[in-house]
């Protein structure tokens, strides 16, 4: 079966720095659950950003749902089906209230205001976050921001979910809530996480990023 998302031979370097990715390749099939594992600075977050076109590789190709993704228009289309939850929630939350933030994605997909709000409330209920509906976003705790950020992505009903260190700033109660949410999803999942215990509870297939390339766990 063809992958839903594929990165092939990806090379990338930040200006003035050594290459962080030197031919990294990753295939994500429908329903796959993958953990990207590696030391800090190995390029895990960079790879996720390349996957959705927020960074562009110097060589290599991103293919999504059978189509090469090259232009910004290509990636805008891809981001309708591939959702990235950033490592820092403040990079992703910018509306005055939680419900407006969660509704932003559905509105961009063409939903009217009433429909987008209904979609957002459904997601907040599914995640047991309706008590945050009208809260001012920048007044939330770090853990609350992280869960709301996930809600903003899930409201777009992506087919592939990319998560960058999703357990950062989560207390045990919210980490358990996140675990239950992720277990209940049927999307393909690629997660960057240093939390080995959390990864183990999700039964993820580990792929290690070493020296700029990816390798399956032995």
UniProtKB/TrEMBL annotation:
It comes from the Bacteria. Pfam families: ABC_tran. Keywords: ATP-binding, Nucleotide-binding, Transport. Residues 5-218 form the ABC transporter domain. GO terms for molecular function: ATP binding; ATP hydrolysis activity; ATPase-coupled transmembrane transporter activity. The keyword Manganese does not apply. InterPro entries: AAA+_ATPase (IPR003593), ABC_transporter-like_ATP-bd (IPR003439), ABC_transporter-like_CS (IPR017871), ABC_transpr_CbiO/EcfA_su (IPR015856), ECF_ABC_transporter_ATP-bd (IPR050095), P-loop_NTPase (IPR027417). One of its GO terms (cellular component) is ATP-binding cassette (ABC) transporter complex. Belongs to the ABC transporter superfamily. PANTHER family: ENERGY-COUPLING FACTOR TRANSPORTER ATP-BINDING PROTEIN ECFA1, HEAVY METAL TRANSPORTER. This is Cobalt/nickel transport system ATP-binding protein.
């Amino acid at each position: 079966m063809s992958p839903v998302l594929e990165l092939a031979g990806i090379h990338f370097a930040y200006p003035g720095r050594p290459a962080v990715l030197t031919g990294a390749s990753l295939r994500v099939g429908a329903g796959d659950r993958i953990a990207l594992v590696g030391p800090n600075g190995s390029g895990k977050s960079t790879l996720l950003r390349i996957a959705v076109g927020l960074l562009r590789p110097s060589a290599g190709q991103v293919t999504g749902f059978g189509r090469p993704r090259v232009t910004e228009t290509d990636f805008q289309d891809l981001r309708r089906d591939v959702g990235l939850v950033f490592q820092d929630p403040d990079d992703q939350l910018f509306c005055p209230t939680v419900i407006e933030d969660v509704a932003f994605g559905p509105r961009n997909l063409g939903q009217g205001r009433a429909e987008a709000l209904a979609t957002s409330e459904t997601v907040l209920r599914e995640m047991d976050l309706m008590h945050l509906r009208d809260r001012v976003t920048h007044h939330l705790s770090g853990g609350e921001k992280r869960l709301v950020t996930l809600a903003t992505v899930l409201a777009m009903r992506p087919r592939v979910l990319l998560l960058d260190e999703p357990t950062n700033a989560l207390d045990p109660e919210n980490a358990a809530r996140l675990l239950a949410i992720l277990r209940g999803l049927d999307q393909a999942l690629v997660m960057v996480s240093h939390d080995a215990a959390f990864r183990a509870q999700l039964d993820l297939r580990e792929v290690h990023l070493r020296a700029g390339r990816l390798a399956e766990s032995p």
